[in-house]
Design brief:
With about 230 residues, the chain is α+β, with helices and mostly antiparallel strands. The chain has helices spanning about 10-15, 40-50, 70-85, 170-185, 190, 195-205, and strands at about 90-95, 105, 115-125, 130-135, 145-150, 150-160, 165-170. It has a five-stranded antiparallel β-sheet.
Length: about 230
């Protein structure tokens, strides 16, 4: 099993962060769905993002606690998070991102299926095979970074009734689950990316700019665009 705890560079990252210098803007999604968004939908997304805890808030660097009560209030909480995730055009949302240090996440890695919840999730196994992909985060708008993660994951948790759930996930779904479980452990994509991208992303955040490894200068030019 791969190490899913804090990286060795986390402490350094925390020392670099000055919440007073951080911006709280709303734009990208948690996960990189590629879809056209009209003006009205953009307004709804921005309204949803305004309800999500943003980078610089210490709750995002804290470890969430296990849930022991499975009742109607929990079901309402799950439904509320799933609605917020969809309004923000996200593919996953963890409870710390709504200010609650509880081990609860919702995800929808495929738009053709209903959102699902996972409570008290634990990663049982991660494959040695890994790949690198660009990730965004609803709590770090306008920043995209490359993150290496195992391609396959087995996650054990519970549903809203407390029943055991075991997920054998691969590809994008495995990535989404790992991203959200990271949130429950106080780990962000900036902890997972390589140092040059982390430094560049932090610099962009301090300046109130966007960052993407495809277009690191934020000028719209990129090798990927052939420009």
């Amino acid at each position: 099993m791969a190490d899913v705890g804090k990286t060795a560079e986390t402490d350094e990252l925390e020392q670099e962060l000055d919440p007073d210098e951080m911006i709280e803007e709303a734009e990208p999604v948690e996960g990189p769905p590629d879809r056209e968004i009209d003006e009205e939908r953009m307004r709804r997304r921005e309204a949803a993002l305004a309800r999500i805890v943003q980078f610089g808030d210490p709750v995002l660097k804290s470890k969430a606690s296990a849930i022991s009560e499975f009742n109607g209030a929990l079901a309402d909480e799950i439904e509320s998070m799933a609605e917020l995730m969809n309004e923000a055009l996200g593919v996953g949302l963890a409870a710390p991102q709504v200010g609650k240090l509880r081990r609860l996440l919702v995800f929808q890695s495929n738009p053709d299926v209903e959102p699902r919840e996972l409570i008290n999730p634990e990663i049982e196994w991660l494959s040695d095979e890994a790949d690198i992909a660009i990730e965004g985060c609803l709590s770090i708008p306008r920043v995209l970074v490359e993150v290496e993660r195992p391609v396959f994951a087995r996650v054990r948790g519970q549903d809203r009734r407390g029943a055991e759930v075991v997920l054998e996930a691969s590809g994008f779904e495995a990535r989404v689950l790992q991203h959200e479980i990271d949130h429950l452990n106080g780990i962000l994509i900036l902890d997972r990316t390589e140092r040059p991208q982390r430094r560049a992303a932090l610099k962009a955040l301090r300046r109130g700019e966007s960052f993407s490894p495809i277009d690191p200068d934020g000028d719209g030019d990129s090798e990927a665009d052939g420009e």
